[in-house]
Amino acid sequence: MKNQIPLSEAIAGYELAAQARRLSEKTIADYQNTFNKFTLFLDDDPPLDEITPDDVRRFLAGQAVSKKTLLNYHTGLSALWTWAVEEELTGRHLLRRVERPQPEKRAIVPYTEDDVKKMLAALGKSRPYWRAGQALTVHSLPNPARNRAIILALIDTGLRASELCELRIHHLDLRNRRVRVFGKGAKERVVPFSPRTGQVLWRYLKNERHDALASEPLFITTELKALDRHVLRQTLERIGRRAEVPDVNVHRFRHTFAINYLRNGGDPWSLQLMLGHSTLDMVRSYLAIAQADLDANHRLASPVANWNI
Questions:
Q1: pLDDT digits (tens, 9 = 90+) for 128-157
Q2: Domains observed in the chain
Q3: Which among 4, 34, 194, 298 counts the fewest CB atoms within 10 Å?
Q4: Cα distance between residue 141 and residue 210, in whole Å
Q5: 3-class DSSP state of 307
Q6: 154 and 257 in contact (C-beta within 8 Å)?
Q7: Residues 68-77: contacts with CB within 8 Å, 24+ apart?
Q8: Helical axes 144-157 vs 195-208, angle rounded to 10°
Q9: In a 3-state reduction of DSSP, which class is residue 84?
Q10: In terms of DSSP bridges, do strands 178-182 and 172-173 run parallel, antiparallel, or are they unpaired?
């Protein structure tokens, strides 16, 4: 066992190791946020082996955040202690003695076909409004081609918000209709898309980005900056309000892709790869919904039930 080192030195060593492993910038930033909060909570810089499971439990219990965020804090601290054990900086994995928070299980509600068509119809013009002393009017909206490409890309690939925002033009293979994605943990995967989505992406690049370099972001803002998750969320929320579709967000596009993929005959193992999940746990939730739909459709269409034989 190496000499005792304070928590701050262990954190600094782990952050270098995380960068060397090429963890994504978002993952490293999330871990740094967790470490900063934990250090402030301790109000000290104790040796690693003097920190107790109860310290971690009190830290987690005192955070006014969602259970999903609590789980992220636990995951970040667990990554730190896993590295510390491997480096022989400590002989115990503290987080294995602290129960993992269980995040809320939110209902999976995919978009309907009508929802998506309403959103696509709401890209070019504002909702009608009255101007002082004038008739009812509408005005043109910015970036309709970009937003159409975003919606079709999301619903056709199931990408996460961060994955979509981090795409570069050279990640697209329009000829073979594939996109190279870097997901959680900087894991690379290749996701196919349909000819229709490819056509919309091609038009967007041809008409809106014809002078862009291959290394530039695929989706940019009106100010010519890379689209980030905050702007993406605001953009989709505004589209939802204009289309009168509630709760428009990236994750619902991901759910919609997954459920319709299974409804239309796709297999769960391929879906797991395309979504970038490390296990089948989430895919099983999608399977249950798709199977319920099939059962309901069978009840409606069964010859035996309908013919009363």
A1: 777 777 778 888 899 999 999 999 999 999
A2: 7-97 (1.10.150.130), 113-300 (1.10.443.10)
A3: 298
A4: 21
A5: helix
A6: yes
A7: 68/103, 68/104, 70/101, 70/103, 71/100, 71/101, 71/102, 71/103, 72/30, 72/34, 73/34, 73/37, 73/38, 74/98, 74/100, 74/101, 76/30, 76/31, 76/33, 76/34, 76/35, 77/34, 77/35, 77/38
A8: 150
A9: helix
A10: antiparallel
pLDDT digits (tens, 9 = 90+) for 17-61: 999 988 888 889 999 999 999 999 998 899 999 999 999 999 999
Using the structure block, give the residue that is written with the tokens 């909060």: 37
The full 3-state SS of 113-127, as one line of letters, equals HHHHHHHHHCCCECC
Q: Where are the alpha helices (DSSP H) in 64-139?
A: 67-86, 113-121
Residue 188 backbone dihedrals phi, psi, to 5 degrees: -90, 140
CA angle 14, 20, 25 (to 5 degrees): 80
pLDDT in tens, 258-302: 999 988 888 898 999 899 987 878 888 888 888 777 677 667 666
At residue 82, what is the residue type?
T
**Strands (DSSP E) found in the chain:** 129-130, 136-137, 172-173, 178-182, 188-192
Q: Give the integer Cα–Cα distance in Å for 148 and 204.
A: 9
Q: Contact at 8 Å (CB) between 150 and 157?
A: no
Tokens of 82: 């896993």
Which tokens hold the place of 129? 């409004």
Residue 214 host element (H or E): none
SS3 168: strand
State which H helix or E strand residue 207 sits in: helix 195-208
Query: Is 83 within 8 Å of 14 (Cβ atoms)?
Result: yes
